[in-house]
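Section 4.2 – Deliverable D4.2 (structural model, holo form)

The reporting period included a commitment to supply a predicted holo structure for the target in complex with calcium ion. Inputs used:
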Amino acid sequence: MKEGKTLPKILIIEDEAKIARFLELELKHEGYEVVICGDGRSGLENALKSDIDLVVLDIMLPGLSGIEVCRRVRQESQVPIIMLTAKDDVMDKVAGLDMGADDYMTKPFAIEELLARIRVALNRKKLRSSEVKMDVLQIGRLKLNLTSHSAFYGEDELTLTKKEYDLLEYLIRNKNMVLTREQLLNNVWDYEYFGDTNVVDVYIRYLRQKIDEKYNIHLISTVRGMGYIIKD
Ligand code: CA
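Output (structure tokens):
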């Protein structure tokens, strides 16, 4: 929660003003930002906004039903949704979960339980997004796609050989550490190298030609007598 990223923003779609107001107070007290919509249509519109982190969605709503709102949100977004069912109606719960709701609560509910479920859903969401980020390594404008083994500088895709890519990935994974030629050989070339370590210098030169020189940046530094380093 730093660098301007605001608190999680929760959208409440609930037409019963008293319940909506109660939820708003409780959630704000927990430190969340809260937006309230009293009908299905405006609720749907707001749920699709990218700054909403979680939706608390009542099923019985004027305009569009909660089930329908859920179905339409899921066509476009994976934002966590917790459904509120007015009665202990098994069909409503099943329909809500079928439509992709993450969880549901039956009214009347204990606020502590709803808060706990909100925390769980938000954590799950955070985990999901950090998994997605794991597939990309980035340093400045240089980006490695670890799934496709491709490298980009800004929008430009770099043409790297497999060894050049492997070396670059290893350097970036261990950024801010000086890596000796022996370390690079053992980790990138997959075998114990008994000769000299010139091969590393050669590949570093290739990378510098393709990145440092081409884009006029200083990516790979030589640490005299030690090895190489990529700094943040
Ligand atoms: Ca309602």
